[in-house]
Amino acid sequence: MPSVKDRRPRFTIPQEELMYPGHSACPGCAEPLAMRYLLKALGPRTIINLPAGCCAVMPGVWPRYALRVPMIDHAFESTGATSSGIRAALDKKGLDDVTVVGWAGDGGTVDIGLQSLSGAVDRNTDFLYVMYDNEAYMNTGAQCSGSTPHGAWTTTTPGGKGILQRGGKKRILDLMVANGITYAATVNIAYPEDFIARVREAKAIRGPRFVHALTPCPSGWRMDSRRTVEVASLATRTGIFPLYEYRNGKYQFTKEIKNRKPVEEYLCLQGRFKHLSPAQVAQIQEIVDRELEELKAKVGASRK
Question: Is the pTM for the entire model greater than 0.90?
Answer without folding.
Answer: yes
